[in-house]
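S1.2 Input.
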Amino acid sequence: MRILLLIFTGFLISTGVNAQTLRGVVTDGETTKPLYPVSVVNLTNREQTVTDEMGNFAISAAAGDEIAFSFIGYHTTQRLATPGAELSLMMFPLSVQMPEYVLHPGYTPFQRDSAEQATLYSTELNKKAIKVGFSNANGGGFTGLIGGPVQKMSKSYKRNKKFKAAFQSDMEQKFIDTRYSQKLVTALTGFTGDTMVVFMNSYPMDYDFARAATDLEIKMWIRNNYREYLKPRKRDNLKN
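S1.3 Output.
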């Protein structure tokens, strides 16, 4: 009994040591403005989060864990975790030249489309909410006390907020489609036409998994779902 107690105590201690938190802030490498909402994924333990409106994040990570940062229109970046020290990360936009739309060679169709859409809707996407702050101008005082609440009640603010959410969701689905494609499903399952559509709708892929998974993990995920789909009871329930 004493040996079991010591083992259990050691397990709790080791768990407490490993359960650390990596904190940091993500900013635009050109403007130094905070980026929101940047997707932050721990590729080691699969934990995930997003930055807040000030670019801050906190995620569970142990020393040496690989952390991936992704944001529409920006280069995806990876860093090794060093819990206890705040990580200051700058992300840089994809190379876009105006007024002509020019991208450096080597980008995927999804990256080109994402950058193009981000440029096309830059006005809507870059609208910022009025925040309460303090200014030293005119003797000092708080700013945004009235403008912030009034803005959030306006129809234009609500429409813009819905647009940003829809834009983000659309971009995420487009990325998923690059990893979870009909061509890949057909190659692994032999499904085509309506059967393939039913299969893919029955087993939708999560965006964060699509971002973090390797090609092999994607294929294994499809094959596992394929085996589930072939089970008679499971397949009948999906059809009904």
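S1.4 Remarks. The CA atoms of residues 189 and 226 lie 7 Å apart.
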